[in-house]
Model the fold of this input.
Amino acid sequence: MKKKGSIIGIILVLAAGILWGFSGFFVNKLEPRGVESAQISVMRLGFTFIMMSLWALIFKRDVFVTKKRCVKYFVGGGLGMVGSSIFYFYSILMTSMSVAAVLMYTAPIIVVVLSIFIFREHLTFLKSVCCLASFAGAALVSGIVGGVGTVNVPGILLGCAAGFSYACYSIFSSLALMRGAKPLSVTVYAFGFATLAILPFGKLPSLIDKIADDPVIILMALGQAVVSCLAPYVLYTIGLKYTDASNASIMSTVELVAATVIGLVAFGQSVSIPAIIGIVLVIGSVVMLNVKLPERHKKQ
Done:
């Protein structure tokens, strides 16, 4: 049974969000070497799937044993991974990174709404406030507030599609877990289907040539796969066993805060006053959402 509000779930989801924030670090290292965003996604998903599969084959083969009724949820979770990457990539091309990032973070709102109908979760006043606060904070941190970036209707729609796809991973993973799937099984199978779906977009012959000319690309891609993909997805999926999907999705917006701090420390990127306010809003929403959760868990 899912233990709503467990401190374990809170820690796992927040840790996942922080690690996801490192994704931009590796992207900033790979793009100057001529690796396109779609190719980065192929390596990120593909290497993660390979590493998880090898580990499971050696140490935990029962990960591959699952119930047939869960397969459709694995497919849905995998497509959610791919959709968020592809739609996000094209949204950036048609608008800007800041606009696309904010639209991606419509995901918590989408999860909250869908959870009302799918999981019969209650839309409390606190959850509503936290959801809106985290989205507002994301907008401030990414810089869209104040007129930064150019938007157009197709780009906005693609950005929203990225957010919807991102939300689907939480929803489908929760459904699979509720039906008895193991957390690691959910992650492995989702990555498997995600890898198959994204391969056609990776321009593999070109990617192989780039790797042959610059082998360091492989090392960076492996680092990205472990730090910003393998570890956070495992932590997040396990965390879903201990907290509501809507709560987890809201808490994962800490990724933007982590990305901002990493950009400041690693690349000397400046942080504006609105961004600082956004960081406070995101952290504040996480604290507000969970400050009373341990008490509720204790009463259960």
